[in-house]
Amino acid sequence: MQYIVLDMEWNQPWPGSPSSQKVLPVQIRGEIIQIGAVRVTEDQQVTDEFQVLIKPKYYRRLNRRVSKLTGIKEADLRDNGVPMAEAMARFRAWCGEDVTFLTWGFDDITILRENLRLYGLDESWVTRWYNAQMIFNAQTDGSTAQKALKTAMELFEIEATRPAHDALGDAYHTALICARLDLKKGTAEYGKALKDHDNGFHGAELPGCIARKVFYGYADKKEALGAMSGPENKCPTCGKQMTGTRWFAQPGHRYMDLASCSSCGKFLIRVRLSDQPDGTIRVSRLTYEATSEAAEAYARRAEKADPEVRRPSGAQRRRRRSKLPEKK
Ligand SMILES: [Zn+2]
Fold first, then answer.
1. What is the model's pTM?
2. Residue 51: pLDDT band by 50, 70, 90 thresholds?
């Protein structure tokens, strides 16, 4: 068995461009234009490397943001890119048999599979893969955030020797991180890490947590937080709707609010918002006792009082004020 650390760059049509209106036989999030990969042996030695540029077929105009980020020019793809089928044949031959893929994040494998399907190519060989971020988190600080590659490198004091946002450069740096993790243990315990992640509760919750629940299907942040401080703001003790105070933003699309039940008292609500593949928002919600450490964090934050999201009365005041000039 061997690990293949994979990173890719992909092109997306410019919003509103003719390409963006195209209906493809298989919906893709992006068309792969570059593959970079590094082999890590079972005993975690970083060995050989692979890279290929792919000539896009569906989104031929290179999105200028993608070009700026990756340094790839349309001419590079035209002159040096190979057709997808050939690139995949080369990549698969280089990978060899019995491979386990490691990626930094969840996107690469999904996009690889989508592209293989779009081109009608075999995808049966990319079934075993792990998001190295999950293993990294489980084996370092147990933190809940999906860390940028750069952040993880800093934590391991790995110096960047390759360009960032270059598929092979990113794959190489990811391989250096992976080589320092316990991959055997990480992949064996991956199911649990993934389950925690899926539930939206990465790692351990803070002490004093008394309830947790996941909500789906909100159109945007406003709607999600509105529901969390409105109809879904249920008292964990009696089930009555509670009143919120105000949401404070925290890193990682998290928000907290101090809610109170007219019969049972105060509770701290912490929510984390995450984008779903279908464009909706999922909310994971934790309820804490008001005496908990988490609630103290809220109190400290409230002192600083720099709310990203105002409570409804604040929003109404703001709206009324903003209407005044129109009346003259
Ligand atoms: Zn209550």
1. 0.63
2. very high
pLDDT tens digit sequence for 283-323 = 989 898 887 777 777 888 777 765 444 444 433 333 333 33
- Indicate if the pLDDT at residue 12 is higher than 50: yes
Ligand 1 centre to CA of 289 (Å) is 12
Neighbours of ion ligand 1 (CB under 5 A): 235, 237-238, 240, 261, 263-264
What is the mean predicted confidence (pLDDT) over 246-253? Answer: 84
Other C-beta atoms closer than 10 Å to the C-beta of 304 total 8
Nearest to 267 by CA among 246, 236, 299, 297: 236
Q: Report yes or no: 75 and 106 within 8 Å, Cβ to Cβ.
A: no
Distance from the alpha carbon of residue 212 to the mean position of ligand 1, in angstroms: 16
Q: How far is the CA of 173 from the centre of ligand 1 (A)?
A: 51
- Alpha-carbon torsion (25, 29, 32, 36), positive or negative: negative
**236 C-alpha vs ligand 1 centroid, how far in Å?**
7
145 CA from centroid of ligand 1 (Å): 32
Cα 328 to averaged position of ligand 1 atoms, centre (Å): 47
Give residue 26's region: left, alpha or beta (phi > 0; psi -120 to 50).
beta
Six-digit token string for 60: 């031929």
Residue 322's pLDDT is 36
Domains and CATH numbers, the chain: 2-199 (3.30.420.10), 209-319 (3.30.310)
